[in-house]
Amino acid sequence: MSFRNIRIVDRASALNEEPKNKNRAGRSPLRFSISLFAICACAALVLLSSCGSSKKTEQPDSSALYKKADAPVAQRVDDLLSRMTLEEKIGQMTQLEKNSVRSGDVRSFMLGSVLSGGGGSPKPNTVVAWCDMIDGFQKEALSTRLGIPVLYGTDSVHGHNNLRGATIFPHNIGLGAANDPALVEKIAAAAAVETAASGALWTFAPCVALARDPRWGRTYESFSQDSRIVASLGAAFVRGWVAADVGSAALPVATAKHYLGDGGTEWASSRSNNYKLDQGNTIGDDAYLRNELLPPYADALAAGARTVMTSFSSWNGLKMHGHKKLVTDILKGELGFSGFVVSDWAGIDQVHPDYYRAVVESVNAGIDMNMVPYDARTYIAAMKKAIEAKDIPLKRIDDAVRRILTVKFESGLFERPFADRTLAARVRAPEHLALAREAVAKSLVLLKNEAVAGTAALPIPADAVRIYVAGSGADDIGLQCGGWTIEWQGRTGDITEGTTLLEALRARYPETEIVYDRSGNFKDADRNALCIAVTSEPPYAEGVGDTANLLLPTSERLLVARVSEQFERVALVVYSGRPVVLGELESAASSIVAAWLPGTEGAGVVDVLSGDRSPTGTLPFDWPASVEQLPVGRFISGEQKPLWPVGFGLNW
Ligand code: BGC
Ligand code: BGC
């Protein structure tokens, strides 16, 4: 018995580890059986070891400085850090995906964070179930010795897109076309409220990627190829997110991602899966780095982004997760970033084939929190080993934990760890739907509107007796929303609540006969009537969406051919996450509207088609005539001429 006690003290001082039995009172009966010799041995050991380490196993009472809401954040952080064992510190640096968290894990690993990956929703996917899930993790976290709350993260990248029933806004590419910072700010605030309603405060957004090749499957997550637009809208998003009124919940936290160079990768440089661009290598010089890639980060940080996520991609051949110069020297040093850096999904695993070295190199490069999708145990073991072997200095660990705790204290999470359940009423609130609808209308870019026999297809004639509508995208919420909606890759069909273009058209023109056929086979079509053909890319996310040819699916192209034979005037609405190669479609349709991935509020598309609103969107990307012209840099240098240039957009 006595030996066991000595061993505990010894272990605690060597590893600063928390003994299994956390309750001092619960251990007290054992004391009666401790021999005098053991007491002396213990006392000697306590004297020999630092006083701090024995303090580290105690449960602090409510007078502890870090528990005082009115004490300055820096002092609270110092106080809490001084009480932490090594295991507690490593726990803070660990973020586990919720599907891998078993009951008791938050408590036993002392996790710093839990996340929902793409589609990481509870069953059922309701606000109440979300709150129960996250509050449940929180209760476990608060029951640990030091009671450090978890910060729950989710990808609210176009609304709270993991939650069924949330307001889904246009993906960033559409917001880039609208190019309205005040609008983006309001959208972010609305998204923060809906996210907070389900108990999460931390979004992995905005994505401030500078997409330079639309063949990239994440192009729609990028506001624009123009760094100034990316910087201004990214900062607007952060401002809106962090200032959102989330009732009694703690303050929302935003992430600038993916640091750095995502979107600029070279074709076929990716080594991940069968991706071509995603997670590949970006080649650039110092001018490109400083003039184009860093400003969106600098502006997002100035606007209040307190976390930065590193990119899967490499910068000039070196994986960003292991890039000390860019992560530590430039981001934390030059840009003065004092929040914390979170890895991407198992992103550190790509730094080196040997997992131990991958952990060592990425943490030393400056990654503060590791997003561990599946296996926290292996990461924690590697961390312990690395610290014991002094491959990672304790100083680095303290720096990482200090940053994480700072963000938690700043957000007020210690005082307000739980969801504000009254916010549930704000999910899909009428004002959020109106905002989304406005954003959709503003994001539409009119690319072509050619008169046929003196009349253009758009706007829809006020006296239209009959309108023909073709294409499955016209009546499919899943296609309207794209990837990162309910599921990681998105999905076709009724994946969530919303209004399709067809439904909105019927509501807008109650007196008009709306004839719908998804494949565009109309019997005895009236040649002079208007046909609206909606073509869509299938939903995709990340490298899964990398494409060599940038073409719409064959079925979609055949659809346009079919309707163009039947009608004089075809208004083509393109739902896509990027400019696609139109080829023959360009001449087949008399009007073309780029509608991007508008989200759940299809009425915004009809607001423009009907002429109720003017088209005001402009292209956030050069629109290529063919893939041979890519990447976008060749347009920027003047070597190639796009079909339509960035900034282009017609009006009536
Ligand atoms: C993506 C990130 C995302 C993370 C969590 C990663 O695969 O690259 O953008 O935030 O997963 O879902
Ligand atoms: C997750 C995403 C993540 C992706 C990375 C998916 O299973 O749901 O969040 O970004 O894996 O490969």
Radius of gyration: 27 Å
Query: What is the assembly state of the chains in this entry?
Result: single chain
CATH class of the largest domain: Alpha Beta
Largest sheet: 8 strands, parallel
End-to-end Cα distance: 87 Å
Helix content: 25-40%
Structure explained in plain terms:
With about 650 residues, the chain is of the alpha/beta class. It folds into two domains: about 325 residues, Glycoside hydrolase, family 3, N-terminal domain (TIM Barrel), CATH 3.20.20.300; about 190 residues, 3-Layer(aba) Sandwich (Rossmann fold). Helix content is about 35%, strand content about 10%. The chain has 23 helices and 19 strands. An eight-stranded parallel beta sheet has the order 10-7-5-4-3-2-1-11. Strands 12-19-18-17-15-16 form a six-stranded mixed beta sheet, sandwiched between helices. Helix 10 runs antiparallel to helix 17. The longest helix is centred in the middle third of the chain and has 18 residues. The chain is globular. It starts with a helix and ends in a 16-residue tail after the last helix. One beta-D-glucopyranose binds next to loops.
